[in-house]
Fold these 3 entries.
Entry 1:
Amino acid sequence: MKYKQAICLGALVMSSAALAEVNISGFASVVGGQVLEGSGVEEFGLEPTFLADYPLVGAYTEEISFEPDTLFGIQLSADLLEGLSATAQIVSRGANDFEADFEWAYLSYEFNEHWTVQAGKKRLPLYYYSDFFDVGFAYPWIRPPADNYTWQIFNYTGVSVLYNYLIGDWTLTGQAYFGREDDEPNKLLSEFFFGEPTREIWKDIGGIVAQLNYEWLDIRLTHMQYTNERYIGGEQVEWDGQTERDGKFYGLSVNIDWNNVLLLTEINRLTLQGDDLDTYLVTLGYRFGSVMPFVSYSDFDDGNEIHNTTSFGVRWDFHPSAAFKIQYDDVSDEGVGAGTEDSWRVAGDSKSISLGVDLVF
């Protein structure tokens, strides 16, 4: 796989260079951490664990590790002139044994200054930080709060239409998209929840995003719906006798960046077969020159799986392109049925510390 990726990347660079300029940029995070104390989940045989990254099963234990949050990424963008461009992003993550994978690979065509159409593989724009989830330099935390950024599917292949307009002093941007994702084996479901190869299919994915920005205020609204199929160990899963289930996702984020104050909020709801899964986060930070301490709280609740995280951290922008961060996370896992085979606990309670450097280049 790595050799194929290298060949594809080389072909893209050489063919594009003959037509137009190729821009190369990158980002990286080098992070270490460990669990200071935790309960684990005895009924699952799980040791004290902090699940920092749900989709990629980036988990810390009581032994210090630099793998769960460490990553390196390269993005190539080729301007093919007359509105046409090609973009590819390759990311190597410690949580994936540093294997390099294509996260983005799409073509863009700009019709005019307001409308652009894209086709290919992209990040599913569910949350405010979805598009730049891997770029740690773009946000205050070590990683976006895991209680809120929990989903097992985070990419899709399809088409999207992007738009942007000025409305008085406001900027309106967003996109409408349609596609599907067939992930086999799905890392989160296979390695953490079910313990055997799991194929997760999201089809007929359709959504819309609208974002309004006015100087210090940023408001984002999003809606998505999809149809889910799942296979565990090769056997198709049924829900209430049906092999498919439909989900609808709604999200709202309101962010304020005013003088030295940073306030980030996000609330989401997934309606799945008549049941609601709710998540939210609130982060408050204050800048003292190049240093910003912050406090954050995030929560996940679907009536059975219930957990929340309180975080304290400091970001220090010691370089125009690099930031040092340190963060303490206190997780409370209140899933029902603790101590039984029907437990809904995920990783148990934990207290952990992590620190590292994020950079862009």
Entry 2:
Amino acid sequence: MQPRVTSVGLILRHDPSEQFEYPDHIDQDSLKALPSKPGIYIFRDDKDRPLYIGKSINIRTRVLSHLRTPEEARMLQQSRYVEFQRTAGDIGALLLESRLIKEMQPLHNKKLRRTREMCTLRLGPEADASPEVVYARDHDFARTEHLYGLFATRKAAVERLRAIVEGERLCPGLTGLEAMVRGRACFSRQIARCAGACMGAEPLEDHQQRLRAALDNMRIVVWPYEGPMGIVEECDGWRQTHVIDRWFYLGSIDHPRGKLPVKRPARRSFDVDTYKILVKPMLRGELRIEPVRL
């Protein structure tokens, strides 16, 4: 904490952190061993059960910040030690954190703890196609074209579609949100909230083009490779290759061993968390991607 100089002299500002005492019930050796490097960390209780899994580009700094957070008092009271696992970069930490939370189901990771079956909006290539809600159990999201948005429930998908229709003055009847009667305008047209494609005031082709344009920023990117690919990260001369197939994280290869440390799952499918971690940096060209042999 920097001192402050006033007209009456030097005033020392008190730094509250100087009197902070780390919880003595958490093993001090486990805290001292934490590296200032990327990776994941796990708070565990007295029965070795995982309480919370997190990630950081600086494990030590992040864990110590938990110990200073009053809002996490309940988790800290249950904790007895902290373990960690290094990764060669932030992407590896994000992928490993996501997978371990699903596998280990820690008590205090509520957002990522459950594997969700997602749904999406599908708008086929046909000229008169209407959006429909489809599920991951029926479609491989990593390989299927014309999918838009990722939603945890059908209700959320329909609400998002309704917001787009209202915002763009599209027709609720032609988008499947409202029953249509042939030869009659939809209710939204009657109150001037639809551009009139339902009754020919707007060409159907123009309506569909506007609908696709409105959905496009939610388009699910099809896995752009024939098979698995490796995302390479390096730290202090240590190289890791994170193996991804169809937006599913298979594991990381620690060089020079050159083999996946875990058995590959027999069944793998589109993983929403892996997709969200990777799709934007991949499209921006920020990732070092190389072919891998498994």
Entry 3:
Amino acid sequence: MAQEKHYRVDYLLNGNYKTFYIRASKMDNAEAWHWATVDAGVGQLPKYRTDPVTKLSKPQAEKHGITDVEWRSA
């Protein structure tokens, strides 16, 4: 298994500030947007770790009121 790190993800959901921490092997902007959608209750989690999951893109997330996603190492 790859080395996992802790990340902090901040975003706005319909104008309200949200933040959460996640442990992941990699993080980039696309991953941060995906996890923000999951935290907001819009995105999907896989039932099992190896199951594929459809990740929402930035434009799709913005249609659900998710904006200003930022992330950094925690």
